[in-house]
Amino acid sequence: MNEVVIMTRRVAAITTVLVLPFIGGGLVGYSIGRSSHDQTVSETKPEGAPFQETRTVSYAPQSRDSVNEAVIGSRRNAITTTVSLASPAVVGINVIEVRQYRQWSPWGDDPFFRQFFGDRTYTQQVQGLGSGFIISADGYILTNDHVAGNAKEITVTLTNREKYKAELIGTDPVSDISLLKIDGKNLPYLKLGNSDDVIIGEWVIAFGNPFGLFDISDKPTVTVGVVSATQMTLRTQEGRTYRNMIQTDAAINSGNSGGPLINSLGSVIGVNSVIFTPNQGSIGLGFAIPINRVKEIVSELKRSGKVDRQYWTGLEVQTVDARLATYFGLAKAGGVIVSSVKRGSPADRSGFREGDIILEVNGEKVADESAIIAIVDEAKVGDVLTMKVMRERKLIDLKLKLERRTT
Q1: Please, which of 88, 169, 207, 347 could form a disulfide with 188 given CB 3.0 to 4.6 Å?
Q2: Per-residue pLDDT tens over the stretch 169-198
Q3: What is the CATH number of domain 85-181?
């Protein structure tokens, strides 16, 4: 019996030791929670208000203004920031050109009939538009030659609705770049970046004046895309050479020509110039002139108003086809063969001979005759071209200096 009593007492003692801490902790937690709740209620409940109408401070709904600020804050990113900073430096350009037209004649352009019926030509003023962007605080503006190169009158519109008559400082049809100037001070301008650092796939923003919408809203239209490709060479168009272009899928439409292509850091990497439009609309194939090429042109236009390309080489070449490639032991067709070297010409002084096969110019492979023409066409007087040449099945390097044509 005594053993049972002793065992019962031991169980009771153990139970007390284990249960009492839980009871005590629960009471303390309840006390703390009740105290906190009472404090919250006292902060939010007006005197005399019924308990069920109280709302805790921590769960009070945000005001509409604070919600809007939060939403706007979450929508701002590198793209929207760049658009906000760059837009004031983008301009709309309206031009008036004087173009000459020839009336249709059943005899065509035959000079025999022209002596009887006269030169049936007439001139007409034509209005055009495009885009541009300010590159200096004193009012220098970049655009395309096909926008303003032949203009008789140029009007530039800024985002603050101010309009300026612009002066054509210089233009270069080959590179499709024109430099304008307006009389202004402390104007917003864009930073010219480094197009050699362009990354395929990086975000870019195309600014411009498509279809003259700038005149309606006094601000540029913005489209966003990525760099789709670099080093893209297009066919020469109306004497304009488009080499090593930046391709983008940012929508570029009629009127965007001359506008900037800007990266997410806010630097200009190209000048929007060409679109591929089989259906007269943007299909995501736009091309911009690399800004590093443009920088060289701008320096020439500021200095002399043009790029001096009145040089000569004294070379005549033709494309190396499969038959010629086999004859000269080439692995495949490519390059051009020198068919003639004019005596006393720059090519003659450089050591060129008939039968030489030119494979590269300044490290760029020459595919055919049109390729070497495009490379040489964008050079200027005084440039030295390094050409990799195959002569008698051996590779040699020749340097050709482009000299001014004297006759």
Answers
A1: 88
A2: 999 999 999 999 999 889 999 999 999 999
A3: 2.40.10.10
